């Protein structure tokens, strides 16, 4: 090996060691009267997102935040650019719901390199590429695998027919809730051979796309009698498509879903939907509390897990008043 190659190898080694040591330590957050807080929302096309953004705004005064909130309008690339601009504006801390698991990883790492502690809220990133306690402080959110599993178990218990022909409407492709709500449901429903998933397609977590995809899938699978939607907006879209096609959701098609929006609770009360497993959008107060603990130097658990309720005919009317 000549001298130049040796030198290069030595540099690479020391760089590697350096970046490893660096990646262990998270940026700290000093005690201050007010904090410049970034919240980089991914889109605002459904009641869940609007409720989440409002929750951050409502929390800002109480928690002494000067809040910078952006809206990426459904584009992961815009969300990356929004984080960039927040870093340039000198935020103290970043709350980020990454639209998809992979494209936001460079943004998470860039925030860390700029000395900004980042908390992922409501969605997470690919765990193989970025880690809590290392690249970001923690993930604040639900157990999406468990949500999918609970929907499947409720369906197994409550479906009255002999053969369940299931259409699945998936959330945004590449997002953590779409990936996990699918695997949780698929694994649990496979344990009962009455059920078959005949189609599984993305509706991008959106009502309108859910309706359109359901219209197409109904033509290919007219015998469908169960619709599992990864969120309530797509479930409501599917109900519209079913009714347009002369089907009777709640009678000849069981519709099951996740979130707990006002429209979904109303659909349950009206007998058109069977169940929705809760996924709460009210992250503001939790973000404030976890941030305070971080400022105090407390060790933050890598996953600050949110507990989800379940809404059915039994309790939907009791909760519709607090729904969004
Ligand atoms: O279920 C959905 C929203 O990331 C947990 O995203 C969230 C999901 C929620 O668009 O309605």
Task: Write up what this structure looks like.
- By secondary structure, this protein is an alpha/beta fold.
- It has helices at about 5-25, 45-60, 75-90, 105-115, 145-160, 175-190, 205-220, 230-245, 260-270, 285-295, 315-320, and strands at about 35-40, 65-70, 95, 120, 140, 165-170, 195-200, 225-230, 255-260, 275-280, 305, 310.
- It has two domains: about 5-140 and about 280-305, Rossmann fold (3-Layer(aba) Sandwich); about 145-280, Rossmann fold (3-Layer(aba) Sandwich).
- It is built from eleven helices and twelve strands.
- Strand 9, helix 9 (about 260-270) and strand 10 form a beta-alpha-beta unit.
- Helix 2 crosses helix 10, helix 3 (about 75-90) runs parallel beside helix 4 (about 105-115) and helix 5 (about 145-160) runs parallel beside helix 6.
- The protein is elongated and about 60 Å long.
- It starts with a helix and ends in a 5-residue tail after the last helix.
- The chain binds beta-D-fucofuranose.
- Beta-D-fucofuranose binds near residues 48, 231 and 233.
Q: pLDDT average, as an integer?
A: 94
Cα end-to-end separation: 67 Å
- How would you classify the helix and strand content by structural class? alpha/beta
**Largest sheet, spatial ordering of strands:** 2-1-3-4-5-11
What is the β-strand count?
Answer: 12
CATH C-level of the largest domain: Alpha Beta
CATH third-tier fold name of the largest domain: Rossmann fold
Shape descriptor reads elongated
Number of domains: 2
Rounded radius of gyration (Å)? 22 Å
The quaternary organization reads as single chain
Number of helices: 11
Helix content: 40-55%
- Low-confidence runs: 5-23
Query: Which hetero compounds are present in the coordinates?
Result: beta-D-fucofuranose
Largest sheet: 6 strands, parallel
Strand composition percent:
15-25%
């Amino acid at each position: 090996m000549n001298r130049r190659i040796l030198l290069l190898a030595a540099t690479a080694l020391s760089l590697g060691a350096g970046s490893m040591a660096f990646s262990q330590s998270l940026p700290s957050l000093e005690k201050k009267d007010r904090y410049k807080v970034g919240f980089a929302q991914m889109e605002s096309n459904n009641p869940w997102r609007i409720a989440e953004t409002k929750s951050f705004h409502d929390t800002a005064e109480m928690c002494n935040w000067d809040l910078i909130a952006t809206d990426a309008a459904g584009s992961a690339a815009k969300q990356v650019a929004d984080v960039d601009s927040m870093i340039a504006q000198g935020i103290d801390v970043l709350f980020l719901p990454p639209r998809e698991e992979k494209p936001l990883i460079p943004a998470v790492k860039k925030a860390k390199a700029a000395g900004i502690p980042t908390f992922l809220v409501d969605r997470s990133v690919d765990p193989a590429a970025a880690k809590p306690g290392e690249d970001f402080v923690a993930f604040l959110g639900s157990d999406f695998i468990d949500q999918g599993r609970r929907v499947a178990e409720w369906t197994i218990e409550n479906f009255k027919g002999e053969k369940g022909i299931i259409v699945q409407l998936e959330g945004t492709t590449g997002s953590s809730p779409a990936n996990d709500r699918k695997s949780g449901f698929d694994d649990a429903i496979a344990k009962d051979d009455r059920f078959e998933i005949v189609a599984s397609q993305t509706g991008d977590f959106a009502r309108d796309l859910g309706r359109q995809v359901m219209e197409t899938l109904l033509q290919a699978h007219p015998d469908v009698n169960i619709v599992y939607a990864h969120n309530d907006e797509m479930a409501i879209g599917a109900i519209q498509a079913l009714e347009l096609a002369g089907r009777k959701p709640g009678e000849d098609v069981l519709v099951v879903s996740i979130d707990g929006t006002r429209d979904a609770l109303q659909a349950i009360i009206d007998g058109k939907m069977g169940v929705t497993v809760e996924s709460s959008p009210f992250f503001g107060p939790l973000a404030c509390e976890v941030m305070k603990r971080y400022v105090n130097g407390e060790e933050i658990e890598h996953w600050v897990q949110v507990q989800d309720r379940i809404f059915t005919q039994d309790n939907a009317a009791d909760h519709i008043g607090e729904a969004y």
